[in-house]
Fold each of these.
Amino acid sequence: SSDDLNLVAGIAVPILVFPSLRGAVPTSYVVWLLAMCVLALVLLARGLHRGGAVLLLSAYGGFLVYALLTA
């Protein structure tokens, strides 16, 4: 979805422009966001239904918990 792409671009572009920020965002966050982006694209390609939406929201919730625990 566009939100995922915006999140990834919001992390990747500043790191490309300012290499000193490379350690500011953990690699695991970027990987998780990319995985959610791929998941969203796969679910949308198959036709997003209630189960897929719950899965995607659970992935976002999991990321939020992970980010709070590792911050």
Amino acid sequence: ELTSIVDFRQGPALDAIVFPNTPPRLLWSSSTTAEVPTFAWNVNVHYGDVQNNADKLSTTWSIVRCVRGDP
């Protein structure tokens, strides 16, 4: 669901008009990976990189953006 708000053709990859004041950091998803259940999917909103290596149990501060899929 996070990739639905990312424009991979531009940098920053998140529309600053629609999502103002979003720092260029990782956005975490609540979806975990199948391989490592403590890892979550995340998107780097500055570059548009999609990764699955963010440890949800980490003490590192990250941003959460609420999105929902199509009904």
